[in-house]
Design goal:
The protein is an alpha+beta fold. The protein contains 12 helices and 10 strands. A 5-stranded mixed sheet has the order 1-2-3-4-5, with helices on one face. A 3-stranded mixed sheet has the order 8-9-10. The longest helix has 31 residues.
Length: 364
């Protein structure tokens, strides 16, 4: 296990990296404190900690329900992160087909329902049901499995709240897409989500403060989804050639790393196409150059540190290119080709600059 930013890498399951955010252990501290206050016993605290551990195992299964279903439609998942407020499966993208989006969104809650049903059958066969105690802390009936059963039902219902980034919000957007198109559906679904966020926030002020945290989570998620869709709309049907950089430097594969350093210091460019004659053979990223300086020194060659080049045609759609960049964080620089020749380069910063210019022109 190793740290990556604020997250601890727990392992890799089904080809998907699983992380735990640094704030996640605070949940166990909070739950342990609550159970201690409400039970006053070590047994109650241990029950609460075990319950929350099993609950988050169910959350992981929920997220894998999304991820493995998306994989069936050719959509990968970069990672799954455990947060104090739940899990997050970072899909490369959501399906554009609303039917597929509904299925991917529903498979998470479906996993929770399947777990609850399995526990219901087990408890029924063993006759191990326990009466509910209204004085019990949180969700703590006498039977541990019964507690997990109720928690999974709650997770399924909670995630079907019709607001981004909840699963219900994605189902709502997909359903609306059939009638009004994806862009309008996203806008309406985001507004509904933010309206619900305001409601949760008001209820939180007069009741459970945890609702305020949920309100913030929903508000940010709705705004993020609406912003991503607006961005895609602005770039759709715009050729890559409109935003590409045409004044750029290249490196040769046999050039020493000292030359890469000189070119970097002489200007603002940090990532370079690598050309063997007129043929693109790779890309030298800033991180690779720095790593090469550490491993090979100034006399190392660009060929030792270059990575495979990502290319696109100058007539390709900017929205499609942006999606490709977002799916592969390693593709920081894309080489733009025209009939086999390198005519430009583009990166995320360049796309952002293009959008700022277009926004300024529209404000005139």
């Amino acid at each position: 296990m190793k740290w990556s930013g604020w997250s601890l890498h727990l392992g890799r399951v089904a080809g998907i990296d699983l992380y735990m955010h640094a704030t996640f252990p605070l949940l166990f501290v909070w739950v342990g404190f609550l159970y201690w206050v409400q039970t006053g016993t070590l047994g109650g605290v241990l029950f609460g900690l075990a319950f929350i551990a099993v609950l988050f195992f169910c959350v992981v299964l929920h997220e894998y329900g999304h991820a493995l279903t998306a994989r069936r439609y050719g959509i990968g998942t970069r990672y799954i992160t455990l947060l104090p407020i739940g899990g997050l499966a970072a899909l490369e993208r959501m399906p554009k087909d609303p039917r597929q989006e509904i299925i991917v969104a529903l498979m998470g809650p479906a996993v929770n329902i399947a777990i609850a049903f399995g526990l219901f059958v087990l408890l029924s066969l063993t006759g191990n049901w326990a009466p509910m105690d209204p004085e019990a802390p949180l969700m703590m009936p006498a039977n541990f499995l019964q507690s997990v059963l109720f928690a999974n039902i709650f997770l399924a219902v909670f995630n079907m709240i019709p607001a981004f980034p909840m699963d219900g919000g994605r189902v709502l957007r997909a359903a609306l897409t059939f009638r009004m198109g994806r862009d309008s559906a996203t806008t309406l679904a985001a507004r509904i989500g933010q309206t619900l966020a305001i409601g949760f926030g008001i209820l939180g002020l007069f009741g459970n403060p945890f609702l305020i945290l949920i309100a913030v989570f929903i508000w940010i998620g709705a705004a993020s989804e609406a912003g991503a869709t607006l961005l895609e709309t602005q770039l759709r049907n715009k050729p890559v050639a409109r935003a590409m950089i045409t004044d750029f430097h290249t490196l040769a594969p046999n050039a020493p790393l000292s030359h890469a350093v000189d070119v970097t210091l002489a200007g603002k460019q940090t990532d370079f196409p690598v050309l063997d004659g007129n043929r693109v053979v790779g890309v030298a990223h800033q991180t690779s150059i720095l790593r090469g300086l550490r491993d090979y020194g100034l006399d190392g060659q660009v060929a030792d540190i270059m990575t495979e080049a990502v290319t696109a045609d100058r007539r390709d759609d900017l929205a499609t290119l942006l999606e490709a960049l977002q799916q592969d964080p390693e593709s920081r620089l894309v080489c733009i080709m025209d009939r086999g020749a390198l005519v430009g380069v583009i990166d995320m910063e360049n796309i952002s600059e293009y959008l700022r210019i277009q926004s300024a022109l529209h404000e005139r």
